[in-house]
Specification:
This protein is an alpha/beta fold and about 120 residues long. Strands 4-3-2-1-5 form a five-stranded parallel beta sheet. It is globular.
């Protein structure tokens, strides 16, 4: 049985809070259940890892809550937040404070292939 959940947010529209809510919430639930939990922002959705972007997007969960509030809640619950190196190449390195690491494609593939990890992509 896997003991870690890696969620790759890649294809979701970063401007649509309802598409972003689910993967962040799933990671938060996993962390609250004492599983290792990680979110990797990549592709078009990787823009959410840039300061100021997620703060402007309503979460669709509660009035006056933003996607950045969801990310902060996930982080405080124990979710490790990472960004793809291509996010930095595309939008720069002005990342939100919750991003602990910029990772390469080999890291992502290594996590996907690890038998102790369950990977979901959105």
């Amino acid at each position: 049985m896997a003991n870690k959940l890696v969620i790759i947010i890649l294809n979701s529209n970063p401007e649509n809070g309802s598409e972003i809510l689910e993967p962040i919430y799933h990671a938060t639930i996993a962390a609250s259940m004492d599983y290792g939990a990680e979110i990797i922002f990549a592709g078009r959705a990787g823009e959410l890892a840039i300061r100021g972007v997620a703060e402007k997007i309503p979460s669709m969960r509660k009035p006056d809550e933003t996607v950045y509030d969801l990310i902060k809640d996930a982080y405080q619950t124990g979710v490790v937040i990472k960004a793809s190196k291509f996010v930095v190449q595309r939008w720069g390195d002005n990342l939100i404070a919750e991003v602990s690491e910029v990772v390469s494609g080999s890291y992502v593939v290594g996590e996907i292939m690890n038998g102790n990890v369950t990977t979901l992509s959105y």
